[in-house]
Amino acid sequence: MSRSPGLPSPDELERRIGELRAAVRRAIAAGDRREARHLRAELRKAEKAWDDAVLGEPAPAPRGEGERGLLPVRDQVHQALTLLGAPAAPKLIGSVYAAFFPGEIPGTRLTSLRRDEERSFRTAPYARPYYLCAALTADLLAPARGLLTVSTWPLEQRIVGPLSPRTDFLTCALRLAEHAGRGTPSPDAQRLLWRFASNIPGAVTGTVGTADPAVLAEAARAELDVHREPDRRRREAAAARARERLDDAERLFGSRLRAVRASGRRPAINGENAP
Asked: What is the pTM of this model?
């Protein structure tokens, strides 16, 4: 992927992000909240620039049989999640990458990815510009089974409550439709859009198996307006509890030894709560 002359490379942005993270921690330790807020704003800009540099606007490319992705698996997953903008299961992540990016994500590599990311974070916290981490359940603040997120997302975005599966589905549909609408969707992208459209009222208007990105986006946006606010309130309440009761690693990967209920009680772990 090419980049414009004069723009920093992803490696340069990674170094800048690392420097800003360290500066934020120093400002907080010194009690300088004003400087910490300023540095956090700069950090968010650098992280967005890194996302833009890596995600870009790649066009679908023909793929020969057996061709693998051009990037490391974690970067491929990061690209797909950045496009989706919501917690997603590995199967959807793989489908999105195959539809909108050159190459494929080997399914076998996704099995241990989150564990590898957690191990890396606990060994050297914040050494990377982002981590692929777990979504957290709103009630227990435990890892949501089978859902991946990105560490640089706001905590509220990485939490899933009772309404979140539907709002996240609609969010993904809206973002994919808007992205596809900027060009001519590939056959893989059309099939993926159809899967979303067939589950959203008013999104199917044409031939079976095809979806108009503009119509899909409008239908997804209309239903999302109904569910977004109550889902947001539940997520924000859970995020406040997580910030109060979980450490940095637990806020990314969930608590393994306990689950934190809304009441504050910490029940013993059982089969349902295990990651």
From this structure: 0.71
